[in-house]
Specification:
There is one protein chain. The protein has 133 residues and is an alpha+beta fold. It has a domain of 92 residues: 2-Layer Sandwich (Double Stranded RNA Binding Domain), CATH 3.30.160.20. It has five helices and three strands. The longest helix has 21 residues. Belongs to the prokaryotic/mitochondrial release factor family. Pfam families: RF-1. InterPro entries: Pep_chain_release_fac_I, Pep_chain_release_fac_I_sf. This is Aminoacyl-tRNA hydrolase.
Length: 133
Amino acid sequence: MDKEKILSELTYKAVRSSGAGGQNVNKVSSKVVLSFDLAHSAALTDDEKMLAGSNLAPKLTNDKILVLHCDEDRSRLRNKEIVTRRFLRIIDTALKVQKTRKATKVPKAVIKKRIENKRRQSEIKQSRRKPDY
């Protein structure tokens, strides 16, 4: 994965932020929307696209486009930096291959301990009963 190549494929759009903020919100477009077309990316190999597509499936649109937005700061430049950093972190985690989980056997000591506890609990409950004459 070449970060410079991926960063060159990003498209940014500035839009007006929502919510309260007075006159500044109504006249300044400080919210930044980042779009990344995963399906048509030249920076990723086909295997990386498949891996990222499966890991990012809930975050992708139907056209395999990742859309992120940021309106945390009043500055458009700062919001662009934040959303770009967030994008790189998401892509890094999406391209990591998960280790396969190895099923382990339950140790004999754990089984023995469980059975011993069951036996002890059974004896406690039997001692509470009324005697049978």
